[in-house]
Amino acid sequence: MRDIQNELDIRGVPIDRVGVASVKYPVSLVDGQLAQSGVADFDITVALSADKRGTHMSRMVELIRDHLTELDPRRLPIVLKVAADAFEARTVSIGAEIQFATEVAAPVTGRSVYQVHGLRLDASLDQAGVDIQSTVTAEVTSLCPCSKAISDYGAHNQRSNVRLTTVGSADTPYPISASEAVSMIRSIGSAPVYPIVKRPDERHITMQAFDHPVFVEDMVRDLSVRCDLLQVRHRVEVRNLESIHSHDAVASIDRR
């Protein structure tokens, strides 16, 4: 049968990225601490030289089947090299997004249940080398220092979405695990959020938040300092879903 995508292209225009996006596939997420099953959403692209008309997209789905059904961030440099050989490409990018859960105990009653967070992995290989970025998304409670200072009693608080991206290399592709990232995020708000809250827990959380007011600026700085202490390149993004304003408050620090 005629293989059109392998034919010569005479337009002389290379393509930066071409491939497949939003490929959903069942996987096991394994990283040395987590061992959970789920459905991941994959993107795989390669750079295409000017003389090639097309790439082999079906092979990209096969790459997921053969090398990524056990999704281990620590193995991504190896998978990138396999992909580069399979597609005869000098530039390869693999993205994967999946949810994972950590067990959380209520602060007073100790009731334990799982809480879900987001994980996105972005791995690339080019002439400069291997770049692995892991992004964990989790939530905290934040209580406004200004509101506390100017009020006779009480202060407004809200949930805050926090995204921590850490950057690895071929030698250390996964410098902070997803579970460790969640623990770091939960520690920088006024209080963590919990899936189960009984009355004694609610009293504890409310007072904890009141005793630890933080601006969105405080949270990004605190999390960035912790990453600096670990000597990990990172990006921190925080969005407060404001409870008394009609806008959100946002802050970010990029030290990638």
What does this structure look like?
With 256 residues, the chain is of the alpha+beta class. Helix content is 25%, strand content 41%. It is built from six helices and ten strands, in the order E-E-H-E-H-E-E-E-H-E-H-E-H-H-E-E. It has helices at residues 57-67, 76-87, 145-150, 178-186, 199-211, 216-229, and strands at 15-30, 35-48, 70-71, 92-105, 112-126, 129-143, 157-168, 191-192, 234-240, 249-255. Strands 1, 2, 3, 4, 5, 6, 7, 8, 9 and 10 form a ten-stranded mixed sheet that branches. Helix 1 packs antiparallel against helix 2. The longest helix has 14 residues, at 216-229.
Compute the number of strand runs: 10
Shape: elongated
Distance between termini? 47 Å
Proportion in helices: 25-40%
Look at the helices and sheets and give the structural class.
alpha+beta
Q: What are the secondary-structure elements, in order, as H or E?
A: EEHEHEEEHEHEHHEE
Q: Quick one: biggest sheet?
A: 10 strands, mixed
Oligomer: single chain
Question: Gist?
Answer:
This protein is an alpha+beta fold and 256 residues long. The chain has helices at 57-67, 76-87, 145-150, 178-186, 199-211, 216-229; strands at residues 15-30, 35-48, 70-71, 92-105, 112-126, 129-143, 157-168, 191-192, 234-240, 249-255.
Identify the notable features of this structure and list them briefly:
10-stranded mixed β-sheet, alpha+beta, 6 helices, single chain, 256 residues, 10 strands
